[in-house]
UniProtKB/TrEMBL annotation:
The lineage of its organism: Bacteria, Pseudomonadati, Bacteroidota, Flavobacteriia, Flavobacteriales. It comes from the Bacteria. PROSITE patterns: PROKAR_LIPOPROTEIN (PS51257). It comes from Flavobacterium keumense. SUPFAM superfamilies: TPR-like. InterPro entries: SusD-like_2, TPR-like_helical_dom_sf. Transmembrane segments: none annotated. This is SusD/RagB family nutrient-binding outer membrane lipoprotein. Signal peptide: none annotated. Keywords: Lipoprotein. The keyword NADP does not apply.
Length: 488
């Protein structure tokens, strides 16, 4: 009888607890339902840095496109097959979902914060908020610039708004560029060096507002140099304005994301090259042969010696023996190697190019060219005497090296931007140097190096009309379809 009474009591309690409202079943009782803007900002920074520095063939093949590295057992990506592994989809998704969406949410939460205290205390907090919002926007602009420079036209004005625009339009790439430059200009004016920003939540600059100003101006310089050939008058004005406002002019201001010594917070290269136990990559003969010709002192910093005692690169675009070729150096395999978003080396080569294009800024093309090479070598720990010797070579010195300014700057920038695959690829696309050839077995019979990613397959399926319009607008969805700024 006791069991029956207990059973009836249990049923009664169960029935009495029932309700027609079942919405609570979707609530996550054991997981956080809110967060802080700082956490979202940090997460966005890490996802962005990881995507830009990774060498996983599922996410980032820019070192391969730049022919700095090639592959061993599986050369598909060196042969420009980027669809089997859905590489464009993954790049697109990480930047929109894991970077831009987190930055947008960080901005939303930050904007909604209500401050209490005295008038002076609230004013101080508002100034910090204003700085944080500007930094968020700067990083947002950087991310969109990567998307445009990868695909061409991309979602922008309707992006990140699933409720109102689940199928966003693809905006004109040049229009996006100009808006990004405008945003960066405003962001710099909104930053106050008398107040803090994200502090320790900022894993690039530790909340240093002055350095974020230089970052924004440097990104503006990069965009201006890119757009220069498409709109010379506008590009010239923006280059000069960015330089006047103050760009990165020494290595201490480099935008380096700080990694830790243990997973999952190591540089992704450590995961791909060391922790994985795999040997999928070797330096490409394209780069190694060029550096051998120049007796470049960075070789020992970039690569190991091959088993035959020389610096030997794997044949680009084919299968290669890992054991018989040079390998990437221990420096690159260090789990704490910083992930670079912008640096002084890149700035000097951009300035050299800008001078040659006609921009009125201090210094000559030669002085900036020399400074770019020097900055790269110093960054990699090359001795001062070796730098002097290298700059004096007749095939390196700006006045005697072969070719036009595009060849001189293009070849040296390509070498200096080693391990920064996206930037090296962009420099190549803009200057058309060094001369890179597609491998004989290139995917779909390609006869030239890709100059963009094709649009993600998922986007073509789920957002068909807008992707189709974008393809028509840019002139095709091929790897060889040039971006608006790639005029020559």
């Amino acid at each position: 009888m006791k069991k029956i009474v207990l059973f009836i009591t249990f049923i009664s309690l169960a029935i009495s607890s029932c309700t027609d409202d079942i919405t609570g079943l979707n609530e996550l009782k054991k997981e956080a339902t809110s967060t802080k803007p700082e956490y979202l900002f940090t997460n966005a920074q890490k996802n962005l840095a990881d995507q830009m520095v990774s060498t996983s063939v599922n996410y980032n093949v820019f070192r391969l496109f730049a022919q700095h590295w090639t592959e061993t057992t599986y050369p598909d990506e060196s042969q420009y097959n980027i669809t089997t592994r859905s590489i464009p989809d993954n790049h697109f998704t990480v930047l929109y979902r894991d970077v831009l969406r987190d930055l947008k949410e960080s901005k939303t939460i930050l904007s909604a914060e209500v401050y209490v205290g005295t008038t002076a205390e609230k004013a101080a907090k508002e100034l910090v908020r204003k700085n944080k919002l500007a930094v968020i926007d700067i990083l947002t602009a950087y991310t969109y610039s990567i998307l445009v420079d990868t695909f061409g036209n991309v979602p922008y004005t309707q992006a990140l708004d699933l409720e109102n625009h689940p199928q966003p339009v693809y905006d004109d790439a040049k229009t996006i560029y100009k808006d990004l430059i405008s945003r960066l200009t405003s962001d710099v004016s909104n930053l106050s060096s008398s107040a803090e920003s994200f502090g320790s939540a900022d894993l690039v600059y530790g909340g240093d507002v002055v350095k974020w100003k230089k970052f924004a101006n440097t990104l503006r310089l990069r965009l201006a140099v890119n757009i220069y050939d498409a709109e010379p008058t506008y590009g010239k004005a923006q280059v000069e304005a960015a330089v006047t406002a103050g760009v990165i002019m020494n290595a201490s201001d480099n935008a380096n994301f700080k990694y830790l010594s243990t997973q999952p917070n190591t540089n992704p290269l450590y995961v791909d090259l060391v922790a994985s136990g795999r040997h999928d990559f070797v330096p490409a003969n394209t780069l190694v042969n060029k550096m051998n010709t120049l007796a470049d002192p960075r070789r020992e910093k970039y690569f190991t010696l091959a088993s035959n005692g020389t610096y030997k690169g794997g044949t680009y675009g084919t299968g290669n023996s890992y054991s018989s070729n040079s390998h990437v150096s221990a420096t690159i395999e260090d789990p704490t190697l910083p992930g670079t978003l912008l640096d002084y080396t890149e700035v000097e080569f951009l300035l050299a190019e800008a001078v040659e294009k006609g921009a009125t800024i201090s210094g000559t093309a030669e002085s900036h060219y020399n400074a770019g090479i020097t900055a790269s070598m110093q960054n990699w720990g090359v001795a001062a005497a070796d730098i002097t010797t290298y700059l004096a070579r007749t095939d390196v010195a700006y006045t005697t090296a072969t070719g036009t300014y595009k060849q001189k700057i293009g070849e040296q920038a390509w070498i200096a931007l080693y391990n920064r695959g996206f930037e090296a690829w962009t420099s190549y696309r803009r200057l058309d140097f060094p001369v890179l050839a597609a491998p004989a077995g290139a995917y779909n019979g390609l006869t030239s190096v890709p100059v963009r990613y094709s649009y993600p397959a998922k986007e073509q399926t789920l957002n068909t009309a807008n992707v189709t319009a974008a393809i028509t607008a840019i002139g095709g969805n091929n790897l060889t379809t040039k971006l608006f700024w790639d005029k020559f």
